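Form 7-S
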Amino acid sequence: MTANEIIGIAVGASTLIATGLLVLRWVIKAYLQELRPNGGSSMKDQLNRLETRVDDLFMLISKR
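Output:
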């Protein structure tokens, strides 16, 4: 193997690793965006609304 082949393999491998890390970063950001309240459409907002409804129902049931 020549030096040019080794350099080519190293550049190709580092390119694949960098691309994989960028994709992983994008996926993590997308998941974290869903876990932050944003005014109504995120998963966090939906869970907060459900929790409030369950608390209200519990209060209605416990009054009897």
